[in-house]
Amino acid sequence: MENKVLIINTGGTIGMINSEPGNENSPLRPAESWSEIAKEHPILERYKTDYIQLSKLIDSSNMHPDIWKEIAKIIFENYEKYKGFVVLHGTDTMAYTASGLSFMLKNLDKPVILTGSQVPLNFARSDALQNLITSIEIAGNDMYGIRLVPEVCIFFRDNLLRGNRARKIDATNYFGFSSPNYSPLGDIGADIRIKKNKIRKPSRDSFSIEPVADENVLVVELFPGLSPIHLKKMVDGIDNLKGIILRTFGNGNAPTTDEFLNVLEYISNKGIVIVNITQCVTGSVKMGLYETSAKLADIGVVSGGDMTPEAAIGKLMYLLGKNLSVDEVKKYMQIDLRGERSLCEYSFVSSMKEFSQEHKFQIEIPKRIKDEDLIQAVSRITNIVFEEETEAEKEIEIVFSGCEEEKLEPLKIKKKIIKNQENLNQEILLTYKQNIKRLMELYKTLEFAIKSSKKFKIENIYITIYSEAL
């Protein structure tokens, strides 16, 4: 491996030059070589770089997942030759490409830094030179005394951001990008200081690429007055649609009218994956916090957590491109794969169709969950019906326990709920924190049981385990 950085040019403002040399008023065109880009900036000669560009340079408005695949293949073919990679890119879709690449590049242990500029490199007040030089130094890591950042990142005007957490927030400002739900990976000023606790650890497995993306995805943003009929007609008019990113209100809330929910259920039953993300700039979807989002979970919509729209799109395309089952895609959309979300959500569902005095089901604890990363578990029980219809109060006991009999001191979590005529139809929402951590330290399989002295049945039981992302 050479002590060099490979610069990959895809196009965009940073690589534009005047069509007439020396005439700043002449139309801009893409530079045809590195020498055209760098010739007016001798300082760039100090940096050990090689240069390659796409077969056809593009305006980033024309970016496409096929071009993400081309970039991924260039990185793979040159991976052993260079310390890191800098991708020159137009700003408009840079966050989409950074997100898409983060999933396609598997077991990454070198920096891949995307950068661009608001003003072309050869303009007097351009931001391009600092963006380019700093990106080269971060990609070169120990060549310049900088800590390794083994991630796909965006560097833009003193901000080093995780690529699948970044968003373009301003069309012209030099501080054009932000990371709403994850702080920058370093303090970039006169010195470059990488925050060790913010970066992902280099993978111990061999680097590989999965250049797959299924573009049969749609983004739907809710607004007051959105017609469910129009939504259904739109979906029915798209052949082979496989996924929808649903941008909802606040913490993941949506209309609760039967008309709207019936359309979403119709879409979900067609095998189309629906992912719930918030329209808000910051914050996260919290499925089940309010009835307006709990209804979505009931019909099969999955939580996108605090993913950006760009990350949600890139991840859904990637997972669909792997030809996974619908259930597998839903599972992995709720689990952190590349640092794109803050929490992992592991969901389990059971139902009780026949009347009985007891219902039990088991939960296998995912191997990915470490005891120290566990945050809490939440159970949500919907539509309890008792066989005996009386106004008398009915007691329900809910028990979380371990399933391994060899434990000498079995640990159980018990909660009692009193049901009466006033709250009979209300769902039961329970949260388990410190006690569930202790239970999961002892057992790899848990049993969830609901008991009553009166016979009952339940429409659905939802268990969600939350853990910090890896």
Could you describe the 3D structure shown?
With 470 residues, this protein is an alpha/beta fold. The chain has three domains: 5-209, 3-Layer(aba) Sandwich (Rossmann fold); 217-341, Rossmann fold, CATH 3.40.50.40; 347-468, Jelly Rolls. The protein is 21% helix and 31% strand. The strands form seven sheets. Strands 4-1-5-7-8-9 form a six-stranded mixed sheet, with helices on both faces. Helix 4 links the parallel strand 7 and strand 8 (152-156). Helix 2 packs across helix 3 (94-104). It starts with a strand and ends with a strand. 39% of the residues are buried.
Characteristics:
470 residues, alpha/beta, Rossmann fold, Jelly Rolls, 3 domains, six-stranded mixed sheet, 10 helices, 31% strand, L-asparaginase_C, hydrolase
How are the SSEs placed, and which strands pair?
Layout: E1 5-9, E2 16-18, E3 28-30, H1 34-38, E4 49-53, H2 65-77, E5 84-88, H3 94-104, E6 105-106, E7 112-115, H4 128-140, E8 152-156, E9 159-162, E10 167-168, E11 177-178, E12 186-188, E13 192-194, E14 208-209, E15 217-221, H5 228-236, E16 243-248, H6 258-269, E17 273-278, H7 291-298, E18 302-303, H8 309-321, H9 326-333, E19 343-364, E20 374-386, E21 394-402, E22 412-419, E23 428-432, H10 434-442, E24 445-468
